[in-house]
Amino acid sequence: MIITTIPDLSLQYDEALSLLRVEWAAGEDMRSFRSSAEQLLQLVNQHGVRNMLLEMNTFPDISVYDQVWLGVSWMPILVKLPLERVVLAIHRRRVHNQLAIDSLIALFRPFIRFDIQFFSTATPGLHWLSDYSGRMPALLAEWDAAHGRGPAHGGVSEPRVAFQLFPEY
User: Fold this and answer.
1) Which end of the chain is more exposed for a tag (fewer CB within 10 A), N or C?
2) What's the mean pLDDT when you consider all of the chain?
């Protein structure tokens, strides 16, 4: 299901997989970043999200002031949510945001109870979060219908390889 309640974010939620996909949708305008980030925490809590993908390739560089705010106000709430697995999709060329994320993770490592994995693009991360579910083609099609298909902000297109599990012999 596509969620449109937070204008700065493109969101997709799948209840069966308890999976939330999050992308920044406001371009370079970060004026309402904090409000959107707070609303995201409420949404995660409301739905009891266990698996979340944060597509960081669409986020502009996070200012130092917003990084401090994330560390003081946002992360302490995030680490208390029922999350089990989080994927951060961020390309290696997004050095500024990668360093900001690494700093936050290092600061909160003792309190983080969920698994964090990094992928350069969203699709492989979604497959991993969903345990390579057969639901993924429909979820990707729903996303593409709502948000279009194409390269992420970082200029890296998502591979659309269909992963299949092989039966055990």
Assistant:
1) C
2) 88
